[in-house]
Amino acid sequence: MLIPVCADSFCRGVVKVGAVDCEAEQSLCADHGVESFPTVKLIIAGGRGEMEYTEAKTARALHDFAVENLPTEVVNLRTKPHLEDFLSGPCKEASSGCCAVLLTDKYETSPVYKSLSVQHKGVVALGEARASNKIIAKEMGVDDFPSLVMVCNGEPSVYDGELKAAPLTEFIGKHAKKKR
Predict the structure, then answer these.
(1) Fold of 3-68
(2) Candidates 3.40.30.10, 3.40.1190.20, 3.10.310.30, 3.30.470.30; correct CATH number of 75-176?
(3) Which end of the chain has less Cβ packing within 10 Å, N or C?
């Protein structure tokens, strides 16, 4: 059975995993072109399509496939003008009036942050300054990497929790409920 494969902590908060009984849901399976079993499909968030997974059905291989194909709405903030454009554009345009800026020492966007960006698209904008970008860090008032700064209606506050899927989802979700 494949369900336990991604019930593991490395998928939790990043991808959702489900199963369909094609005997009971014949029209759904036909709509998605399922003709043999087991079939693994990746349904990409936001109506961006789907992909069939045909590689080894191991936890690591499934994880890698899901992570490689995660969509993202994270804005890469490389310079002070990028930050200013982000704060005056996507941040103000977000329905909550909030945005989050992750300042990280990494060079790639984490799967958790990509997933959060899609979950909160249009509600909370997510930006990221990579590779210990000291210019952006100074503008945001932080010295340590990684740090997350939430800006709501122009007011920044530094997140002091754990940078893991569950607490970040709760924290960003709380801000997503804010109204201007």
Answers:
(1) Glutaredoxin (3.40.30)
(2) 3.40.30.10
(3) N
- Long-range contacts, stretch 161-165, CB < 8 angstroms, 24+ apart: 163/112, 164/13, 164/112, 165/12, 165/13, 165/14, 165/112, 165/115
Q: Contact, 108 vs 74, CB < 8 A?
A: no
Calpha distance 92→142 (Å, rounded)? 22
Residue pair 140/115 in contact by the 8 Å Cβ criterion: no
pLDDT tens by residue, 34-76: 888 888 888 877 778 888 888 888 878 888 888 888 899 999 9
CB 21, CB 28: distance < 8 Å = no
Give the position of tokens 């849901």: 25
The tokens describing 128, both together, are 């990221």
Preceding peptide of 156 cis, ω within 30°: no
Spatial separation of the C-alpha atoms in residues 119 and 160, rounded to whole Å:
21
Residue labelled with tokens 């069939």: 52
pTM of the model: 0.82
